[in-house]
Amino acid sequence: MFAMGNLVYAIATILDYVLTIANWLIIIRALISWVNPDPYNPIVQFLYKVTEPILAPFRRLVPMFGMGLDISPIFALILIWFVKLFVVRTLFGIAMRIG
After folding, report:
1. Domain parsing of the chain, residue ranges
2. pLDDT digits (tens, 9 = 90+) for 10-51
Protein backbone atom coordinates (compact mmCIF):
# COMPACT_ATOMS: atom_id res chain seq x y z
CA MET A 1 0.00 0.00 0.00
CA PHE A 2 2.92 2.32 0.63
CA ALA A 3 3.99 2.21 -3.03
CA MET A 4 0.42 2.86 -4.20
CA GLY A 5 0.19 5.92 -1.96
CA ASN A 6 3.45 7.24 -3.38
CA LEU A 7 2.20 6.63 -6.94
CA VAL A 8 -1.02 8.56 -6.33
CA TYR A 9 0.98 11.33 -4.63
CA ALA A 10 3.36 11.54 -7.60
CA ILE A 11 0.46 11.69 -10.08
CA ALA A 12 -1.18 14.45 -8.07
CA THR A 13 2.06 16.42 -7.91
CA ILE A 14 2.71 16.13 -11.65
CA LEU A 15 -0.88 17.09 -12.43
CA ASP A 16 -0.57 20.09 -10.13
CA TYR A 17 2.61 21.25 -11.91
CA VAL A 18 1.09 20.75 -15.37
CA LEU A 19 -2.01 22.72 -14.42
CA THR A 20 0.09 25.52 -12.90
CA ILE A 21 2.14 25.78 -16.09
CA ALA A 22 -1.03 25.79 -18.22
CA ASN A 23 -2.47 28.49 -15.95
CA TRP A 24 0.55 30.75 -16.47
CA LEU A 25 0.74 30.12 -20.22
CA ILE A 26 -2.92 31.16 -20.61
CA ILE A 27 -2.33 34.31 -18.56
CA ILE A 28 0.76 35.18 -20.62
CA ARG A 29 -1.14 34.59 -23.86
CA ALA A 30 -3.98 36.82 -22.72
CA LEU A 31 -1.55 39.60 -21.74
CA ILE A 32 0.37 39.32 -25.00
CA SER A 33 -2.85 39.52 -27.01
CA TRP A 34 -3.34 43.08 -25.73
CA VAL A 35 -0.26 44.33 -27.58
CA ASN A 36 -0.92 42.71 -30.99
CA PRO A 37 2.12 40.39 -31.11
CA ASP A 38 4.04 39.36 -34.21
CA PRO A 39 2.50 36.00 -35.25
CA TYR A 40 5.86 34.87 -36.68
CA ASN A 41 7.69 35.26 -33.38
CA PRO A 42 8.67 31.76 -32.14
CA ILE A 43 7.58 32.53 -28.58
CA VAL A 44 4.15 33.69 -29.73
CA GLN A 45 3.81 30.64 -31.98
CA PHE A 46 4.72 28.39 -29.05
CA LEU A 47 2.14 30.07 -26.81
CA TYR A 48 -0.56 29.69 -29.45
CA LYS A 49 0.26 26.04 -30.12
CA VAL A 50 0.28 25.13 -26.45
CA THR A 51 -2.78 27.08 -25.31
CA GLU A 52 -5.06 26.77 -28.35
CA PRO A 53 -6.16 23.18 -27.53
CA ILE A 54 -7.21 24.41 -24.09
CA LEU A 55 -8.97 27.57 -25.27
CA ALA A 56 -10.65 26.26 -28.46
CA PRO A 57 -13.49 24.35 -26.72
CA PHE A 58 -14.36 27.44 -24.69
CA ARG A 59 -14.40 29.60 -27.82
CA ARG A 60 -16.96 27.27 -29.38
CA LEU A 61 -19.17 27.51 -26.28
CA VAL A 62 -18.79 31.22 -25.49
CA PRO A 63 -19.16 33.80 -28.26
CA MET A 64 -16.91 36.86 -28.46
CA PHE A 65 -18.26 40.01 -26.90
CA GLY A 66 -18.46 43.47 -28.43
CA MET A 67 -15.27 44.54 -30.17
CA GLY A 68 -13.70 41.09 -30.33
CA LEU A 69 -13.30 40.56 -26.58
CA ASP A 70 -12.33 36.93 -26.05
CA ILE A 71 -13.32 35.71 -22.59
CA SER A 72 -12.40 32.07 -23.19
CA PRO A 73 -9.19 32.42 -21.10
CA ILE A 74 -11.32 33.34 -18.08
CA PHE A 75 -13.38 30.17 -18.40
CA ALA A 76 -10.26 28.07 -19.02
CA LEU A 77 -8.62 29.49 -15.89
CA ILE A 78 -11.74 28.79 -13.83
CA LEU A 79 -11.73 25.18 -15.04
CA ILE A 80 -8.01 24.80 -14.27
CA TRP A 81 -8.52 26.22 -10.78
CA PHE A 82 -11.47 23.88 -10.19
CA VAL A 83 -9.42 20.86 -11.27
CA LYS A 84 -6.57 21.96 -9.00
CA LEU A 85 -8.87 22.53 -6.03
CA PHE A 86 -11.00 19.43 -6.46
CA VAL A 87 -9.11 16.71 -8.34
CA VAL A 88 -5.56 17.43 -7.19
CA ARG A 89 -6.53 17.89 -3.56
CA THR A 90 -8.64 14.73 -3.71
CA LEU A 91 -5.69 12.80 -5.10
CA PHE A 92 -3.44 14.15 -2.34
CA GLY A 93 -6.02 13.09 0.23
CA ILE A 94 -6.27 9.61 -1.25
CA ALA A 95 -2.48 9.33 -1.26
CA MET A 96 -2.31 10.28 2.42
CA ARG A 97 -4.94 7.69 3.37
CA ILE A 98 -3.34 4.92 1.33
CA GLY A 99 0.24 5.57 2.46
Report:
1. 2-98
2. 999 999 999 999 999 999 999 998 898 899 999 999 999 999
